[in-house]
User: What shape does this take?
Amino acid sequence: MNFVGKYCIVCGRNSGIYVGTVSEHNGTEMLLKDARRIYYWSGAATIVQIAEEGVKRPKNTKFTMCVDEIGLFDVINVIPVTEKAQKSIEEIKEWKIK
Assistant: This one.
């Protein structure tokens, strides 16, 4: 499967759940551009629903600030995100400590 260039939700065995554009992929290693960690969500049953529809309760959802690039070395799941869901994800306010 070729995910390079696609906006995806990526699950790591230990690193957590991230969303971003895949720039490199080699087995369980993946490099994401413009990535955010999905810390907590509300308004979706699972990350599959987030990838298809986005979240229904963005104010109760915690996605971190965006980083230019992140490497994941324990990838176990990759789910391409629909355009509708990507728009929903990008509208979620960054969650961070002020």
Observations:
- The chain has two helices and seven strands.
